[in-house]
Write a structure and sequence with these properties.
Length: 324
């Protein structure tokens, strides 16, 4: 018989993403509607280990759906990789009466949720990361807002790059995943897109492309560089020295994590939050909420973490084709 859940905890972990507040709001209000108590765990697994835990009511999430970041805050917690701290986290959950937990974050957050699930805390993950890099789901909360923030900033850089007939290297977030760079590269009409999954570090090819484009009459050159490749400033100096063209680097950084979430992020986060609570109410454990073929589904966390995701070769080729 499935274990009855009476108190649901919710935390956000890892990097923040626009839409996390919408997910928290949905968890709190759905749980209360289902007759459950709700406890918010502040600062992720770090807050769990330090018992930074609060009671939450429906009014506590009023006027939050439009806010970026996370009202529960977030923090990295390397200690939670160790079994002794995982057991401590499970005991703290039991101490506070938390028998069901919703974890909003990425793969690292789900690895922690997986451990708590094995220790008797029914746990459900919600994919919240701007990187769009969780393989089991077609969409992750925060990506739409982040990629539009980056796109709008790149449009502005392009304007000044054109005015000065420059080469501009614009670095976007994505340490191990190039989805923001790929989407912005295509949407902003970049001449070159550098992705962690695809870049071969052949800088001479970049330089040759810049020179060829200038000979064809192009007045500027936009390179979208993913954070995982980085070194945009030193790359700009080398390109300027090799081509003689004024080259500038712009690193967009954490502005991509902030801002009011888009309609898509608010909608997706709200449905995923409610779905996670309903899974817990059914007695489900060790699951991740996902979007598949336009439908909300769930996967076993073990299965989800074993999945691999790669950049579409076709989309990458389109990006190169359209830059001619």
């Amino acid at each position: 018989m499935a274990k009855e859940i009476n108190t649901i905890g919710v935390l956000s972990s890892g990097g923040d993403a626009p839409g996390m507040n919408a997910a928290i709001r949905a968890v709190v209000r759905t749980a209360i509607y289902r007759g459950k108590k709700v406890k918010g765990i502040r600062k992720g697994y770090n807050g769990l280990l330090n018992e930074d835990i609060i009671d939450m009511q429906a009014k506590d999430v009023s006027d939050t759906i439009q806010r970026g970041g996370t009202i529960l805050y977030t923090a990295r917690c390397p200690e939670f990789r160790e079994e002794v701290y995982q057991k401590k986290g499970a005991e703290i959950c039991r101490k506070h009466g938390i028998d069901g937990l919703v974890v909003i974050g990425g793969d690292g957050s789900f690895a922690g949720a997986q451990k708590l699930a094995s220790l008797g805390i029914n746990t459900i993950g919600i994919p919240g990361t701007i990187d769009l890099d969780i393989a089991c789901t077609e969409y992750t909360i925060g990506f739409d807002t982040a990629v539009n923030t980056a796109m709008e900033a790149i449009d502005k850089v392009r304007d000044t790059s054109t005015s000065h007939e420059r080469c501009s290297i614009i670095e976007v977030m994505g340490r191990r995943a190039g989805y923001i760079a790929l989407w912005c590269g295509i949407a902003n009409g970049a001449e070159d897109i550098l992705l962690p999954e695809k870049y071969d570090y052949n800088e001479q090819e970049l330089i040759n492309n810049i020179i060829a484009n200038r000979k064809r009459g192009k007045k500027h050159h936009i390179i979208i560089n993913a954070e995982g490749i980085g070194h945009s400033t030193s790359m700009a100096r080398r390109i300027e020295a090799a081509t003689g063209l004024e080259t500038r680097a712009t690193i967009l950084g954490h502005m991509q994590r902030g801002g009011s979430p888009s309609c898509r992020d608010r909608m997706t986060a709200s449905v995923m939050g409610a779905y996670a609570v309903d899974l817990l109410c059914k007695g489900e454990n060790n699951r991740v909420v996902a979007l598949k073929n336009g439908e909300y589904v769930d996967y076993d966390i073990d299965e989800a973490l074993a999945m691999k995701k790669s950049i579409s070769d076709y989309q990458f080729e389109v990006g190169k084709l359209l830059s001619i």
